[in-house]
Write a structure and sequence with these properties.
single chain, alpha+beta, 2 domains, three-stranded antiparallel sheet, globular, binds zinc ion
């Protein structure tokens, strides 16, 4: 299988949905041992026609896609589009613009921007997985960028808590144990209101995880 070298080649390469499914499986289960997300069983069959997986445990029979537990899971965009965006980030050392990606994929610039943002965030983990287990959520304020901000934006961003001249950053930490090291994700956010932070948590943390926060109202 030859690797694409241009954006046009990447679009053609990843247009093959079977190829994307196989690649997603290889990324998610690098040792080839697929486990059921519901019962953790390891007898898994492929539903080739629909590129789905099914648990063979007679009491479970859960059907799932290779996107399960990854940041691509809750997106209506096909893996064909996602992998082009991943390819762009991995291969464009000087960065790809959302306009360039939007044109290549036939999506809006806003969608392309969102894809690039989500992938850059997820690339901090090798399997594009969401955080799970016990996850700590916290906000902090970094730097003195507010001095350069437009006054209107500064008024919106800086909201007390000793944060004058600082940019808010939301951090998530998945607590590690003897089998898995801790993982950290940090995102610059517009403010630290609940309406901003809760979607960040939903995007990055698996359903069912325990999220710990400090006493800040958000
Ligand atoms: Zn199962």
């Amino acid at each position: 299988m030859s690797e694409p070298t241009t954006l046009v080649e990447a679009v053609t390469h990843f247009a093959d949905a079977d190829r994307c499914h196989a690649l997603m499986c290889a990324i998610k289960w690098p040792d080839g041992k697929i486990t059921c997300p519901k019962c953790a069983g390891d007898k898994i069959g492929q539903i080739k026609s629909r590129r789905m997986l099914q648990c063979k445990s007679p009491t479970c029979r859960k059907q799932f896609s290779a996107k399960v537990g990854t940041v691509f899971e809750d997106s209506p965009l096909p893996l064909s589009s996602w992998f082009v965006a991943v390819w762009c980030i991995a291969n464009n050392k000087n960065g790809i613009s959302s306009y360039e990606l939007a044109r290549a994929l036939g999506v809006t610039q806003k969608t392309a921007w969102f894809m690039l943002h989500r992938i850059r965030l997820a690339m901090t983990t090798p399997t594009f997985g969401k955080l799970s287990g016990v996850v700590e959520s916290d906000e902090t304020f970094v730097g003195g960028k507010a001095a350069n901000m437009h006054a209107k934006r500064r008024a919106k961003v800086i909201t007390g808590r000793g944060t004058v001249n600082k940019v808010p950053v939301h951090g998530l930490l998945q607590r590690g144990d003897k089998d898995e090291p801790s993982q950290v994700r940090a995102t610059v956010v517009t403010d630290t209101e609940a309406a901003t932070l809760i979607p960040q948590i939903a995007l990055n943390v698996e359903k069912g995880a325990t999220v710990c926060t400090d006493s800040h109202a958000s």
